[in-house]
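Do me a favour: review this protein, sequence plus structure tokens, and tell me how the chain folds. Record follows.
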Amino acid sequence: MSEDNEIKVNDKRGQTKEVKNETADQKSNQDQSSHFPEANFIHFVASLGTSCMMHLGLLENPNTKEKEINLEMAQHEIDLLAMLEEKTKGNLDAQESNFLSQLLFELRMHFVKVKK
């Protein structure tokens, strides 16, 4: 074998420090992930809806602690939810479908009120 084709192997057995760091990192990731709700369709849609409510001035912006109105962003999020409703038609269970339909209805009604 020529020198250019040498294979180097780093044996890390017995290096418990790295293993402990990995375990600590994994525990830290688990702790952080426990602060978030389960990733599912309803939580995803609720997240978009909450953001839309914030842009409609129904909820305060968590960064500024003030209620702000941004109709352009609210309309965009309503459009995203409507697109999701159209693209997922027939693929959602009854709870998911009803949640999305009801949320869209309420957001559209609030949008009309705020726009006046």
Remarks:
- The longest helix spans residues 94-115.
- The helical segments are 16-33, 41-55, 71-87, 94-115.
- The two ends are 80 Å apart (CA to CA).
- The chain has a mean pLDDT of 83.
